[in-house]
Specification:
By secondary structure, the chain is mainly beta. It has no helices and ten strands. It starts with 14 loop residues before the first strand and ends with a strand.
Length: 141
């Protein structure tokens, strides 16, 4: 029988509903955490603006400590995924879907010469691929 133990705990204030380790080479110590909270102050006029969230980048320090390396306010995070494994840290992108129905792409930003990290929104153009050839469509940015 397996046994589990708590290595670290952190209060995200809002409900944590999406958690993803960064697969980028040299950045596997980063954990992205997406949160979701419903503001019920005006239940009669419920809107997407009442669903708020945050994206955290947590850094693993040693075997038993996580620290907040970056925090960003967003609409409520429904899901998020890092770009595929095997990418260099300078190409790592986190895709996040929020309660407003938006898909945001955030590039991992590492401040040179320091341990500071952050996320910067990217995506300046979009192109569907293979749609004209009856193949599985894909999207490129």
């Amino acid at each position: 029988m397996s046994s589990y133990r708590t290595v670290h705990s952190f209060d995200t204030e809002y409900s944590a509903d999406a958690v993803e380790w960064c697969p980028a080479e040299g950045r596997t110590d980063l954990l992205a955490v997406g949160t979701y909270q419903v503001d019920k102050s005006d239940e009669e006029k419920f809107s997407a603006d009442q669903r708020k969230g945050r994206i955290y980048l947590m850094r693993m320090r040693g075997d038993e400590a996580l620290e907040v390396a970056f925090r960003m306010e967003t609409a409520a995070v429904l899901d998020m995924k890092w770009s595929p494994r095997g990418m260099d840290a300078d190409l790592a992108v986190l895709a996040a879907v929020d309660a407003k129905g938006d898909l945001a792409l955030y590039k991992l930003v590492v401040e040179e010469g320091t341990s500071a990290v952050g996320l910067k929104m990217v995506g300046t153009c979009c192109q569907w691929g293979n749609a004209y050839y009856n193949r599985q469509p894909s999207i490129g940015l």
